[in-house]
Amino acid sequence: MAAGKASGEILLVRNANKRFGGVQALKDAKLTLRDGEIHALLGENGAGKSTLVKVLAGVHRLDSGTVELNGKPFIQGSPRAAMEQGITVIYQEPSLFPDLSLAENVFISRLPRKGVAITWAQTRDETKKLFDELGVDLNPERLARGLSIADQQVVEIAKALSLDASVILMDEPTAALTSSEVARLMSVMRKLAERGKCVVFVSHRLDEVFAVCSEVTVMRDGETVAESPIDKTSISEVIKWMVGRELKEMFPKVDAKVGATALEVKSLNSASEFKDVSLHVKKGEIVALAGLVGSGRSEVARAIFGVDPYDSGEVILNGQKLPPKRPKTSVARGLALVPEDRRQQGLFMISSVARNVAMEMLNRLSKLGFITNKQEINLTQKWQEKLQIKYSDPRAPVESLSGGNQQKSVLAKWLATDPDVLIVDEPTRGIDVATKAEVHRLLSQSAADGKAVLMISSELPEVLGMADRIYVMHEGRLTAEMARNEATQEKIMFAATGEKVAVAGKKR
Amino acid sequence: MTGLLMRGADKPKSVRRFTWDVTIYLILAAVLLVGFAINPEFGTAFNFSAILANMGEIMLIAMPMTLLIISGEIDLSVASIVGLSGVVFGYTYYFGGVPIAVAAALGILTGALCGALNGFLVAKLALGSLAVTIATLALFRGFATAILGNESVAEYPEAWTNFGYDTIGTSFIPRTFPLIVTFILLFAVLAHLTSFGRRVYGIGQNVEAARFAAISVTTYKWILFILTGTMSGVAGIVYTLRFSTAQWDNAIGLELAVISVVLLGGVSIFGGIGSIWGVVGAALLFGTLEALFNLQGISPNVFTVVTGVLLISAVVIPVALRRLNQAREFREGAKTRIPVDSSTGSRPKEPSGGS
């Protein structure tokens, strides 16, 4: 890999491994940080960046591998120890004490004292000095309540400086900032680097990365796939590194007869979540909504289904306008949503499998509102056969099932309603490979049965393998639409990170 | 897993044995045996008649309260509703001169309206039910005082007061008993054999999942508050007739007995878990214990202490057993089943393969 500046290596991560259940989050990962640099840590969702950041923050402990800080082994597993050793993490949304002043927040862990009395003047003056050094105009005596996220981050940075941190990790700090706030944060980052601090910038916004960073490390599937000085690489090369996953898993999408438009969304707007989203899905089609986590895809799905409100626009289901905020009506008219988080949104975890699977069929199963366990169990057994759900007893709590079988239970619950339009949000997240293939087969079968499927997915191979058509979302807007045969991982990633698709076209 | 916390019929046979509702009936049987053994008056018809009559109002209110707490809400204003509806009943009959049946209907309607107000504030305006119903506890009691002041209405037709305190024929069964059994059966069916009941449990277990399951959470909660208010109204009429008195401080403090019985019956204060049968058992246990203590001449204060201990047991034992189960499962399944790392906030990592 490219050699950086010869001197000043401050933090070395080598052969880092970390496993969560069946998922290898870090696989022989490495990271090299030097004094005075702004280092970009890049990768798709789930590439391992966050796990690595959390190891350095003292939240996680590596299964194996070494972390060396200033030539000494880094003591893992304690956020407090991490801070004392000079590593500070600035999160996307800092958590200051709202009813304390900014100065108190900065010095919270060790307010300057004379005897037992806190020397407030000193606290205030030192905070002011730190703010001045960072070039921001904030009053140390105001309360933290009501401070913008950008200003809260600055307070956190001042706190890091007061603790004499040598490495400052910023985990997607710009995601919630306006462009002028981003510019100010960048100038703060540069000032930190001038003072010899090492700043790690985790971001999906490649333009920002290329504007401010000097080094870049790219991760994919838990491995470090590239390390390079920023001026020796380009946006398109970085994107190639990020997505360069082989399409080894096959996702068979059976060809289905494409029919009339089943779901049409016309310029849907929601003030804070998404803007001007228009899309359509036809019967027999699987349409993917790709993009990064947090780009507004789930929010669009929730608005369509009616769980969340929207400000303007229309949702048309089978040629009929769907009223907003009426999930019951949506279900009655043939819409189903398999939500993103099956534990929090998809299932009643302590209830039985049968209760869960039959939940949406209560009206159709019951006579005059009466329902028995037997009816629910019969329905569940029918769907167990169709979907190959593995459970010991339909009366067992659904939380006793494996993740894959939980997901199949959610799918069974919604497929039982025989919907015309099926929206699935990250349908294979966190489930094993074999079950994943079965879920794909089910979605494909649903499309073949004439259902319209809208699939939200962060996994590019899944999107490319399954979808007839792909929409890409970036920061609340649709940035691209492409047919199956013109889509590539690079093209989707360009659109998902807000770069112009045309650039990708040239590179191909 | 959480077998002990769950209603039995929905669970596999292996976990059904140790449910809390069964435990309650075992304790009840033990108390009955002790009672028969140590006090000759305990086994009399008069005693059982008194137990059933005393538990009447508590049972009537505990039924909808069970569903309400299962849905994740609570109503502390029920005793005030009992007082207010009794006052409306007595006032409209005695001073208003309306037929007594109409007065009773007005009393029950008052209860329904009180419940509707609670429901509006909690479900529609999304205010906390604890705070709202503490406020309406005071409010409804205040209305009762405003209507009757310090007066009381104590004159009712004999046929009606007999309903309140007489027994059926020569048996020990109170005349109110069939009414109460009818309501118990109605609520048992509602909770355990209807779509409505299924959704109430869902709302209590996970309100977000309930919204994603297209359940109108607001409407359901509102209905539950109205049911609770209405049943408190019914209890208000029964209470007034039983003591042949309507006055502002009827049934003061009764909400504690009702909620104690519901929790003792195995209903989780966090919602989502519980059964009507457990609560009925707990009410019988509560009443039997009270009667036994009375007969033995033990101070009511001791009974209060015992109730407290039972209540703490009802809350603590299921939770403790659940933790024990989880710890055991964690040890047994350490190789195949990895707990979600709650500190990450990231996507849950799942174990692979079947359960």
Summarize the structure.
The complex is a heterodimer of chains A (508) and B (355). Chain A has 508 residues and is α/β, with parallel strands linked by helices.
What tags apply to this protein structure?
heterodimer, A: 508 residues, alpha/beta, Rossmann fold, 3 domains, six-stranded mixed sheet, 19 helices, 25% strand, B: 355 residues, mainly alpha, ABC transporter involved in vitamin B12 uptake, BtuC, 0% strand, globular, disordered N terminus, disordered C terminus
What does this structure look like?
The complex is a heterodimer of chains A (508) and B (355). Chain A is an alpha/beta fold and 508 residues long. Chain A has three domains: 9-96 and 147-243, P-loop containing nucleotide triphosphate hydrolases (Rossmann fold); 248-334 and 420-508, 3-Layer(aba) Sandwich (Rossmann fold); 346-418, no CATH class. Chain A is built from 19 helices and 22 strands. In chain A, the strands form five sheets. In chain A, strands 6-9-10-3-11-12 form a six-stranded mixed sheet, with helices on both faces. In chain A, helix 16 (433-448) links the parallel strand 19 and strand 20. In chain A, helix 4 packs across helix 5 (149-162), helix 8 packs across helix 18 and helix 18 packs antiparallel against helix 19 (501-507). Chain A is elongated and about 75 Å long. Chain A starts with 8 loop residues before the first strand and ends with a helix. Chain B has 355 residues and is an all-alpha fold. Chain B has one domain: ABC transporter involved in vitamin B12 uptake, BtuC, CATH 1.10.3470. Chain B is 68% helix and 0% strand. Chain B has helices at residues 13-16, 20-38, 45-70, 78-94, 100-124, 129-148, 158-165, 177-192, 195-205, 207-212, 217-243, 254-264, 276-295, 300-332. In chain B, helix 3 (45-70) crosses helix 12, helix 4 (78-94) runs antiparallel to helix 5 (100-124) and helix 12 (254-264) packs across helix 13 (276-295). The longest helix of chain B has 33 residues, at 300-332. Chain B is globular. The model of chain B is unreliable at 1-9, 11-17 and 333-355 (pLDDT under 50). The chains are: A alpha/beta (508), B mainly alpha (355). At the A-B interface, helix 1, helix 10, helix 11, helix 12 and helix 15 of A face helix 9 and helix 10 of B.
